[in-house]
Every structure is written in C-alpha cells, then in structure tokens.
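ingest -> fold -> write
write: protein_1
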Amino acid sequence: MEIQENIINKVAQSGLVTLDPAQFYAPGERVVYDIKDNLFHGLMLREKDFREFVKTHDWAQYQDKNVAVTCTADAIVPAWAYMLLANRLAPYARQVVFGDAEVLETVLFVKEVAALDVEQYRDQRVVIKGCGDVPVPVSAYVELTQRLTPVAKSLMFGEPCSTVPIYKRKD
C-alpha cells in the first residue's frame, strides 16, 4: 500500500517577508584606540606630549577602518584630546566614535538601518531574523522596530517557522 501525500510549505505561503539584520553590517575592520597609552604616569594627559604624539603618529594605518576612541584608565582626559584624535582620524577612518567596541557596533548598525527604505515593507508581515552569521547588537533590533512599526502590518522576531510576535496593526 502506497501513501502519497503532498507536502505543503506553509511558511512559503504565509506571505511573510524576512528581514535579516546582518545585511546592515557595515564594512571595514573595527579598531579601538585607547588613549590610556598616552597618559603621563597612567593618570593624566599632558598637552605638549600628546600634541607631539598626534603630530608624529602614522594615522594612515586607520585607512577605511571603523575606530572607537576611548580611555579605559581611570584618568583625567579633557574633551579636546578626543577631538584631536577624531580630527586626525577623520581623513582616514570610515567612522570614528567615542566609546568602546560595543558603542562602535551600535553606531555602525544604527547608521546603516537609518538608510533603509521602509516603504518596501508597507503593509507587509515582517519577520526580523534573530539568528545569523554576524553578531547583531540589540540596538539594531530596537532601531528596526522603531522604523518599521509605522509602516508594517505586523512585526515578528525569529524565523518564519517560529516567530515571536512584536506588533500587529489593528485595522
């Protein structure tokens, strides 16, 4: 006795549109520049020494890199020091931010998500993927939710076969 059944792909028929946040992963190497190496006795920044460093340092090594500028030491670092670094990095780096690697990743994702044309998702049932090859900061999911909520019919998190509902417009 032969049993023949048609397998129906209900996910394919569901009309769900999948959005992978990994597509917003900005290109370029990530680098953290820690100003602690420029501190006098690990406590404070001396303007004359720092200005000399800024003048002689090879800034071209940051070409096309995404740079987070921070200080991990408990030290006195004036705001102008970070401004000097940003000024020297600007001609080379793809992006310069104040903060650690996590802040850098957040800024990069938010910037990429901001360029998303949300109109393509108008009145769509959107699933924002939760797993992928690229680590996606929570801030990217928040930004996507904020941008898509006004236009999407519904928002879900996860995979089309297993979603967590986030938002559903009441028509």
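write: protein_2
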Amino acid sequence: MSEPILEDNLNKILLKPRFKEELLEDKSAILKKFEDHFKQDSSRFRTKTADNHIVIDVPKDEDHFWSPQLQIEIITEDDKTILKGLFGPKPQVWTMFMFFHFAVAFAFIVFLIMAYTQYSLKQEYQFSMYMCIAMPILWILFYVFGQLGKKKGYSQMVELDEYVKSILGNSIR
C-alpha cells in the first residue's frame, strides 16, 4: 500500500487503482479500529461507514475536481481477513466521465451507420468517415485527461493511503 498507483503495472493503466492487503486481525476487530478512530474526530479526513464498507474523502478545504476518494471493503476470505481498497474520483466525477465515454461510443456507432448508409446509397460519406476517425481519438483524449487527473490527485491518494496505514498500525501482514 505504500505507493498506491505504482503498486503494479495494471494500476498504472487503470483510472481507479486498487489494492488488496491481508490483515492479521479478524474483520470485527479491524472494523472496530476504524470505528474507534473515526469517533475520536481528530481526523482531518471525511469518512462514511456502512457495514464492512468505509469511504474516506480528502478534507473539504483541499478538495478539487480530481481529488480522490478511497473506498475500503473488509471481507473474510478462506479464514483470512482481507482489506480491499479502491482509489478513484468522487462518484459524480466518475459518472460524468463514464457518460462522456458512452456518448463518444454511441456517436461512433451512429457515424459508422451513417457512413455505411451513405456509401450504400452512393452519397457523400466523407464527413461520417472523418467523424468515425475522430471519435476514437476523442476517446483516447478522455483517457489521457483521466490519467492527468489521476496524477493531479496522486499526493492526496498517498495521504489517504498513509491515513489508513496509521489506523491499521501493525495489523497489515
């Protein structure tokens, strides 16, 4: 968990890096650690809990468009306690981002159908073909934009990671 994005090659590519840690204590003890720490109210991070799910946000005064959110799930798997974490943008940002991706995919399909139809009818189809070329380029630009946003929020991601480590203490295997 020391470098959340650079942990493995897959997380360098993913817009929402993940990690998985095996813990020494059982699920209820780990959840109690988080609960006790959150009750102290000494943390500058904003937190929400629901059953075995924990969501940690950066402080409101440091929050920006690309600020990450850490979602944690504590599960028991094969008699082992596992902490699964997912760094990502806030749900509103992610939803908007995915909407743009689907809109580009839909536009690509529409322009592809238009180009085929115009070609079949022996009409001008160059504009549709140009748009079919432009849509994947736009999709790649969205991906690059997402990667730049991930880099912009990297320092906050490391802070969230260190915060979780400070709560868990020696519980990480």
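write: annotation protein_2
The mean pLDDT is 87.
The chain is about 55% helix and 20% strand.
pipeline exit 0
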